[in-house]
Amino acid sequence: MRLDVVTIFPEYLEPLNLSLVGKARARGQLDVRVHDLREWTHDRHNTVDDTPYGGGPGMVMKPEPWGEALDAVIASGDGEERPVVVVPTPGGEPFTQEMAVRLAERPWLVFTPARYEGIDRRVVEEYAREYELLEVSIGDYVLAGGEAPVLVMTEAIARLLPGVLGNAESHRDDSFAPGGMAGLLEGPVYTKPPVWRGRSIPEVLLSGHHGRIARWRRDEALRRTARNRPDLIAGRDPAAFDRDDRRILAELGWEVTAEGRFGRAPTAVEE
Fold first, then answer.
1. What are phi and psi of 199, to 5 degrees?
2. Same domain, 151 and 209
3. Antiparallel, parallel or unpaired: β 49-50 and 31-36
4. Is 18 annotated as a binding-site member?
5. Could you tell me what percent of the chain has a pLDDT over 70?
6. Euclidean distance between the first and the last CA atom of the chain, given in angstroms as a whole number
7. Residue where a domain stops, chosen among 159, 183, 218
8. Window from 13-27, 45-59, 90-104, 251-265 with minimum mean pLDDT
9. Which residue among 36, 64, 68, 117 is the active-site one?
10. Domain holding 41: CATH number?
11. Residue among 174, 224, 229, 230 flagged as catalytic
């Protein structure tokens, strides 16, 4: 996979030389190219922003350097593959594990992390007309720029590439992974020693009984999801859960509603 990033802070992307992503780059599994947007400016101050039309606070990134930069980056391809242009923005589509899986299947991604109040909208419109373009948000909050989201998305995508993880099955049961835990959060994990500061690991993990261990992990995933992300259970089709799942959910206060979906059972106070 090839991944290009156009930014005014190339040094922000240095973590892409570390850990799994760095190793994938060294092995040639991931071709990461970071470009300084200011290389496509033509004034002595390397200006990349200007005041917004219509007034208002902040500055807006100018379309000219972005257009020249993206044209140059895209022209550097072999002409056979067309990139997916990924625009990190708080107003974009939520980045999910499902999206990471989809993007990991694409051969070329071009990221456009912005600063200030964002990029002149005409740039987005221009490249959405010619290429697949995704506006993507990593959460309901605002950062100083789009570089941190690029790091987040790159790591989530890169670990899904064939051969990047040492164990090809490692991401099968990830939280939110399609299949595996069926959209549940992953449960707790443990390693040696069996007792640490007086705390023992659950006995079932020492049993060697694969069926019981799998059931325990599933139960813990259900409990953690119900506690931390009840939205992942609410409204789900009961057919997605087996009899033991439904027993655990009932213990946690969930029931099948009149509409045939899962919902929280009313408490005594609510009744």
1. -105, 125
2. no
3. unpaired
4. no
5. 92
6. 56
7. 159
8. 251-265
9. 117
10. 3.40.1280.10
11. 174
117 labelled catalytic: yes
Q: Is 141 annotated as a binding residue?
A: yes
- Our count of domains for the chain comes to 2
**Amino acid identity, position 45:** H
∠166-171-177 over CA atoms, to 5°?
165
- The verdict on whether 174 is a catalytic residue reads yes
Which domain covers residue 233, as residue numbers?
Answer: 195-264
Q: Any known ligand binding at 116?
A: no
As a dihedral over the C-alpha atoms of residue 256, residue 259, residue 261, residue 265, rounded to 10 degrees, the angle is -40
Beta strands in 37-145 (DSSP E): 49-50, 60-61, 84-94, 108-111, 132-137
Helix (H) or strand (E) holding 212: helix 210-228
Please count the other Cβ atoms lying within 10 Å of the Cβ belonging to residue 192: 7
**Catalytic site residue 159?**
yes
Q: Could you report the per-residue pLDDT of 159-185, keeping only the tens digit for each?
A: 999 999 865 555 555 555 554 456 899
Containing H/E element for 187? Answer: none
13 shares its domain with 127: yes
**Where do we find the tokens 């999206």?**
99
* Token pair listed for 221: 């995933």
- The answer to whether 242 is a known catalytic residue is no
What is the band of 258 on the pLDDT scale with cuts at 50, 70, 90? confident
Instruction: Fill in the DSSP letter of residue 61.
Output: E
If we measure between CA atoms, which residue out of 146, 143, 163 comes closest to residue 154? Answer: 146
165 annotated binding-site participant: no
Look at the block and give the residue holding tokens 């408490």.
267
Give the domain-ending residue among 137, 159, 181: 159
Closest CA to 226 of 211, 210, 241: 241
| Pairwise CA distance, residues 228 & 236, whole Å | 16
From the CB of residue 6, how many other CB atoms can be counted at a distance below 10 Å? Answer: 23
Does residue 138 have a known ligand-binding role?
yes
Where do we find the tokens 């950062």?
143
